[in-house]
Amino acid sequence: MKQQIVAASKAEPVDYVNPYMGNISHLLVPTYPIVHLPNSMLRVYPQRGDYTSGKLHGLPVLQISHRGSFVFNLSPFQGDETDLARVMDYDYDNEVVKPYYYKVDLCDQQLHVDFAPSRQSAIYHFDYRRQNAVPYLVLNGGNGELTVDGNTVYGYQNIWNNLKVYIYMETDVTPEQSGVFRDGKWNREKRKAEGDDICVALSWSPALSSLNVRYGVSYISVEQAKKNLKREIPGFELETVAEEGRRIWNEELGKIRISGGTENDRHVFYTSLYRCLERPVCVSEDGRYFSVYDNKVHDDSGHAYYTDDWVWDSYRAAHPLRILLDAPKHTDMIRSFLRMAETDGRHSLPNFPEITGDSRRMNCNHGVSVMADAWCKGVRDFDLREAYAYAKNSVEKKTLAPWSSAAPGWLDCFYMEKGYIPALYPGEKETVPEVNSWEKRQAVAVTLGTSYDQWCLSRMAAALGLEHEAEHYLDCSYNYRNLFNPQTSFFHPKDKEGKFIEPFDYRFSGGMGARDYYGENNAWVYRWDVQHNAGDLVELMGGKEAFVRNLDATFNEWLGRPKYEFYAQLPDHTGNVGQYSMGNEPSLHIPYLYNYAGAPWKTQHRIRSLVHQWFRNDLMGMPGDEDGGGLSAFVVFSMMGFYPVTPGLPVYHIGSPFFSSIELKMSNGKTLEIIARNCSEENKYIQSAKLNGKVWTKPWFSHEDIVNGGKLEFVMGNRCNKEWGSGAEDVPPSLDMKNNE
Fold first, then answer.
1. Which residues make Cβ contacts (< 8 Å) with residue 227, sequence separation at least 6?
2. pLDDT at residue 3, rounded to an integer
3. Residues 686-708: tens digit of each pLDDT
4. The domain 262-717 is classified under which CATH number: 3.40.50.880, 1.20.1610.10, 3.30.470.10, 2.160.10.10?
């Protein structure tokens, strides 16, 4: 590889991306050093546990989900035929991972590997360095079929839910021998492997010193996989593919240009942006896509089809970020959700759409938020009436029980009538069949989240002129009040008779992951889960001073147990600052809530400290499950100096910019410029501000203020300015913009 591809100087955005950031997890799932182009179907990463693993399990061909689910596996080998295996476990060294390129030395084999991806195809280069040893290449899969024919291998692997992954692979040198490999034996006479554990092997003369292998993948057919390959990688020049990948990444990451900040900040920022661009993935192939919802190949009508999106995580910041950076792509993602709903049995929006279908994970139905947020920000190239119908079905035509796609039952009828999910007492037997035995009712989390979803429905209904329905869902959006305990200012589960569950511990009640009442996080986090009406929460808690005291307590309250006991019950509640969990998405908006209570300086302080405490350019630089952009989008927004606290409301909250200059080029060609004079690690506090040339005292601004280009100017200092943004007239809106007109 050319030197400028492998180790360019720190001049372009992609050179600040460190895929190794967070590869060693503090507690749960590590990040993955994924090699791919933005939102592309073909993704790979080294097949191992995490960075500490001493072995590579072969070489990857394709992964179909964010956390693994590898399809096919490639193993180069050089040595004695008796040592051949379906998958080789390699000692390795000198590994380099770039978003657009991968290289590694396989030590025992004395093999060097280079790899570069395109969108639906990729290319490997192997240097066989052992003299007088036969070079081999083994391709294996699960259940399916593989045929070897000259210098080509093609076939498919069956995945669950009627999905097939097809492959078409070519080598630049025709092998001398090839055939089916099964049960440790190589049959050179047999050309087709069928059934379980499909595997073929190829070999060359010992004189071969290098080999190029290119392949295409498809969810439609072998023929389409071949077309994908020939369209994207017509030759065997790996450097050409890597250079094009580098160009694409710089173009995509370069939509946000930063100046100033520390070296660590620049790495964290662009690495986080890179992680936001992994999912969802585009599975349109020459204008067609395969849908697992009806097992048919469809014409995409000029709108690419996207899937693999964990909406419970991504609605909060990843989707709002996409609205700014690439509204047309975001529109295609929304249209993809609508296509899924159209072919889904209940015509409801997906919750965790994956390549294999909607896995219905987590709680609530926040695809509703994605629709409402796009519409209110002027992204409207989709059928709102259709979206509203599917959104209603998501809330009303299937159960609200977490991790379930069952029809509505008693629990749902109770919520519709009483306005909350009833909870069970410790030890009380579950009798509702649709409740998952592990995930439980999550009574408070589902009540609060559904209140938010219904507010989003009210926004959509109002946009359609459906006044009665808009009013109904707006009333429902206050259902969080039904679980507010005025004696403690916490959201507290109630039984079916309307009585608070007592006795109660806001840290630990609720069993594993607090799932009886909350979800992965405890009551201290869900105390703030009223994204759509924080202004009302201020009043419920007794006013601004009490609200700030309660926020402060969240960041200062000790765990309540030794760490090993705390995390044994709440393993997802990571990245702790007091009871605040920087490692899980329900916490992301919390540090911005000081803006509602006349204390924006506290938001500025918290954002700077949280990001620097938990997001670093090192192997443990991620505080929790990254969730394919779920956490990273928080970092991107926060380091730019603003954040979408309430998706569905066209408002951004101001925090503390990390860079002296930021230029964000939006998809309409306009530019948002953010200038932070005197910005430094110490100078984190806003002293004064201007928006589009006018003095600005509000700790928020609207989407309308920037959508056609804008300029936000700050003067920063090292002492908190308690006056800026603290006036009663400066409070951010809740529920609707009209509150602040």
1. 216, 285, 286
2. 41
3. 999 999 999 999 999 999 999 99
4. 1.20.1610.10
